Structure formats: C-alpha cells, structure tokens
C-alpha cells in the first residue's frame, strides 16, 4: 500500500481552464495528466466572481462548498442552489454551467472524473476513517479543519492537507472536525 500526505502549502494556484478563477490541484490520475485527459482530478477552486464554469466533456463533477455562502448554479438551464457547507453536489461537467455567488467569494472542493473510465463516491465525514482503497482504485481524504491525524505515521494534517491511499492495506485518519472522503474506482 502507498500512503501519501499532500500538504496544502505545497499547492500552486493555476488559472481555470476558462481563465475565470484559480484552482489548486490536490491530486489527479494519471499524475500530471492534462485537463483534457485525466481519469480523475480533485482540486480546490477559488471563486471570486459570478460567471461560467469550464466545460469538461465526458466528465462528471462533484462540487462541495467549503468556504463562503455558496452559489446559485445554472446547470443545463436549471437552477441549483448550492449553499449548504460540506454538502456534495453532483452535476455533469459537459453541460453549460454558470454560477452566481451569494454574499461574496467561495472556495469549492471539486472532484472530477471521466465517466467512462472512473466512478467516484464523495462524502463529508468526521471521526475515525479507515482509508481502504478499492481494488485497483484510490481513496483520498481532505481535512476540512485543522487537527486530523494519520495514525499509522502519527502525522498531523492541517486544513486542506490531504492523504491518498492506493493498494490493498489501509491507513486510519482520525479527525476532530470534518473531512471530505473520495473513493475512486476504475470502470
């Protein structure tokens, strides 16, 4: 098994595909894949203004507001109010999507996965988490608050630090607050 800790402080802000904001990639597969050919990608996005989302043909998305008041998403011509913190919202990345902010900037945690190659399950949880990846898959946990500890290595995680597990064995993450847990499987 491989357990990797990915520190928030090590991430570089890069412009969105459409130039409308910035994102910080947490992890992707394959590592270093371009935006038009990843199997899956998890990132934090800073949204500071109303506007369109980038289009990702063949990709499903899960957006979770982790800071701010949320937004009104217009997905394929339908309104979706996304204003509950830590509540994952799924939508197709290839439908025309735009966002209108409620009360200022937000930070979103985004999980994107190519629907023909990968499935993803996203949950916001707290407590003791067994990081057990499915066969041939990956599990990723992102601390949404300070104070999480990776038991097997006695490593503390600060807010937005992440741990990725691949393989058959498991690690244990103990959280005092919330964490986003993503389980990714190849189709």
Commentary on this structure:
With 187 residues, the chain is mostly beta strands. It has strands spanning 2-6, 14-15, 22-29, 40-47, 51-52, 59-67, 71-75, 78-82, 89-92, 97-101, 106-114, 118-132, 138-143, 148-150, 155-157, 162-166, 170-186. Strands 1, 12, 13, 14, 15, 16 and 17 form a 7-stranded antiparallel beta sheet that branches. The model has no long low-confidence stretch (mean pLDDT 93).
Topology:
Elements: E1 2-6, E2 14-15, E3 22-29, E4 40-47, E5 51-52, E6 59-67, E7 71-75, E8 78-82, E9 89-92, E10 97-101, E11 106-114, E12 118-132, E13 138-143, E14 148-150, E15 155-157, E16 162-166, E17 170-186
Order of helices and strands: EEEEEEEEEEEEEEEEE
Q: Radius of gyration, Cα only, in angstroms?
A: 16 Å
Distance between the termini: 21 Å
Number of helices: 0
Regions with little confidence, pLDDT below 50 for 5+ residues: none
**Number of DSSP E strands:** 17
Largest sheet: 7 strands, antiparallel
Shape: globular
* Percent range of helical residues: under 10%
Strand content: over 45%
Mean pLDDT: 93
Structural class: mainly beta
